[in-house]
Amino acid sequence: MAALRALEDGREDRLFHDPYAERFVRAAGGDGYWDTAPAGWAAFAALMGEQVAVRTRYFDEELLRAVAEGCEQVVLLASGMDARAYRLDWPDRTRVFEVDLAEVLAFKAAVLRDAEPACQRVEVATDLRLDWPRALREAGFAPGAPTAWLIEGILYALTPEAAHALLDRVTSLSAPGSVAAFEHLPDNPALRTARTSISAEMANLWLGGPEGEPGLWWGRHGWTAQARDVREVAAAYGRPAPAAFDPARDGSGPGWVGTARLPKTG
Ligand SMILES: C[S@@+](CC[C@H](N)C(=O)[O-])C[C@H]1O[C@@H](n2cnc3c(N)ncnc32)[C@H](O)[C@@H]1O
């Protein structure tokens, strides 16, 4: 994901600015990374690059909107190399919790050791398969206050059951007025072929997440969601349909980004 963000950052018409993405890529793969990337990477980047650009811009906007609407705490679930805590213009007092595995957060901290967060950034080293709500509370998260959640780059890697369990936990931690930005990318033949040519691990990464239209499964958890076809969001930013989700291409499938809300009064 960092590599795809770095590619977008290098475009003149970029949809966001992420000066940290390239740093992660070089730290992980050395200066020659772009020349030695695994076979299949270029095909995967061609399929997913536009989708990552569009979703990054969309989530930047949605998170800042949620904070402006009153969410003073933000949780980036499976934050990975997401640098939003450093690169977005957060209002004072915003706390951004980054939840990921300890070794991932340690790598990120090492790469960004000389960077200043633009908010109160809190690392929550935990495993999403374990009692992460407790780890989040122990890190200072306030369940009584509205939260802006980001669920990016994770749902598709979960089984439908695991995805619903995650949404249950998110819901149980969410006060009235909370907002959750999410994406939903069912697997499709084009993506599967590209991933298979990178590695077996990548090929098996996609488990699908919750089935069906996202507004329905957020509704089952008590939220009101607006899910938007990623093609429509791309068009609003002046971009073509992201290749993996362009019905004009063989092997493509649907893809969504969206935002779910809990009413402000219980
Ligand atoms: C595809 S990356 C997405 C990262 C980030 N949200 C983004 O969009 O750039 C998936 C992330 O999930 C994290 N992850 C995977 N399994 C996890 C687990 N069991 N507990 C916590 N984080 C996990 C990985 O470390 C990785 O950072």
UniProtKB/TrEMBL annotation:
GO terms for biological process: methylation. InterPro entries: Ppm1/Ppm2/Tcmp, SAM-dependent_MTases_sf, SAM_mthyl_Trfase_ML2640-like. The keyword Transit peptide does not apply. Its EC number is 2.1.1.-. It comes from the Bacteria. Transmembrane segments: none annotated. GO terms for molecular function: methyltransferase activity. The keyword Chloroplast does not apply. PANTHER family: S-ADENOSYL-L-METHIONINE-DEPENDENT METHYLTRANSFERASE YKTD-RELATED, S-ADENOSYL-L-METHIONINE-DEPENDENT METHYLTRANSFERASES SUPERFAMILY PROTEIN. Exhibits S-adenosyl-L-methionine-dependent methyltransferase activity. Belongs to the UPF0677 family. This is S-adenosyl-L-methionine-dependent methyltransferase.
